[in-house]
Amino acid sequence: xxxxxxxxxxxxxxxxxxxxxxxxxxxxxxxxxxxxxxxxxxxxxxxxxxxxxxxxxxxxxxxxxxxxxxxxxxxxxxxxxxxxxxxxxxxxxxxxxxxxxxxxxxxxxxxxxxxxxxxxxxxxxxxxxxxxxxxxxxxxxxxxxxxxxxxxxxxxxxxxxxxxxxxxxxxxxxxxxxxxxxxxxxxxxxxxxxxxxxxxxxxxxxxxxxxxxxxxxxxxxxxxxxxxxxxxxxxxxxxxxxxxxxxxxxxxxxxxxxxxxxxxxxxxxxxxxxxxxxxxxxxxxxxxxxxxxxxxxxxxxxxxxxxxxxxxxxxxxxxxxxxxxxxxxxxxxxxxxxxxxxxxxxxxxxxxxxxxxxxxxxxxxxxxxxxxxxxxxxxxxxxxxxxxxxxxxxxxxxxxxxxxxxxxxxxxxxxxxxxxxxxxxxxxxxxxxxxxxxxxxxxxxxxxxxxxxxxxxxxxxxxxxxxxxxxxxxxxxxxxxxxxxxxxxxxxxxxxxxxxxxxxxxxxxxxxxxxxxxxxxxxxxxxxxxxxxxxxxxxxxxxxxxxxxxxxxxxxxxxxxxxxxxxxxxxxxxxxx
Length: 577
Prior knowledge:
This protein is α/β, with parallel strands linked by helices and 577 residues long. It contains 21 helices and 14 strands. It starts with 18 loop residues before the first helix and ends in a 6-residue tail after the last strand.
């Protein structure tokens, strides 16, 4: 896997889960070469992971080097002059196309100039590139035909797919911004060109260059699509900000490992529970700047989560404050906030304007309540039912916490006591998981590596036989550093990966291979692991190496004999957490 497009998530391994979504989009992408895929729009609120998701799709397609060429462009929140957008867009497209066919990853983000694009077109006999560049340069210099410049740029993927008999996937991130930040005059003195989104009206129906559109403000994005693209031209895909419980737990371990933040297996579950398996929420808690942060104890978890929701300088609060500013700026009426808060708290059912008037004793006419509901719906803060008079709160736990923090004191006269709520949830979680200690099978198999790494970090003065059988060296270990997914290189340049490397203060180093398959591990896998051990010994001759193998599926008799002969500790579960 290569990552020519730098993903906003940072370290690629931090993109956890989304197996269901990748599988679903994988089928859609496979149909693009057959001209069967309809353009799509991902509907999701901010910080739901959609940008990381589509950027990963780009990198997967680029790496596969198959029948579909990816093109990624983000409409950012910066003012731009119309012809400059045309050139910027075209250079991004042409550079990414050239990057794909030449396998030069740098060109994905380090775009070529128009002059360089033309030179490539001339030397490779791609006349379409040459003609496009000549047209753009000529019209930029003459100061005319800006509309045709943009037409040349935005239609390029569809034209190239048709002329070159290939297929493109056009990924347009933050699409709603095209209506707000592009200006017809260089000094930005006139209004932005709101209708520019209409440029994609027919392109949205392309079967040779289908579009994948995203945006951070779902209500705004849907308005733009409905008005300028006709909503039916793009299939709407709802994208949940939440992972599954297992995926969320994996995210906790990943972030804690990469940011070197101490946690325990108990507190990992607590963080996941309080953050509702929301990866952005989890990341905010793990990297929180809370002075008294201690994520190895329950109180520390609850206090840190509360800090991220409450403190004005906390990343979670700042991010959501910005979102609230953008989406709730029209909701300045106290009655509207009251309605929003009520629907958020009772999001399991629908309410009509009459229901809300009665439940909240609102001093408003029913039609006025309905108007407030429409405003909230357009701001993408509530959902509407099949009937246009039934509404319900979003089933979005993170957003609902922020809304409570923002409005509960104003509406109900008291500030929510999140700390106590979190303590209560942790207490309930502990009761629920009394039998958890030492039971690896409670978790998905893919957690094994994270569980073991965390257990090694937290265990004080232990011999390796606490975790593995057949261990010959029972020296008490004082583990000071545990690393996961460590890459080493053989003399001939072959790259190898060790699942866990744990360094003790006594100079011993524990190397562990973790396999989560249900089938038994055989001799071949053990020989491969032993080769890694020998390479590590060569690279670090002063280290005293202890080798161990965790296989959830067990070992064949032949593999077991090999381990015994070479002093490799074995385990089929983690007995000590």
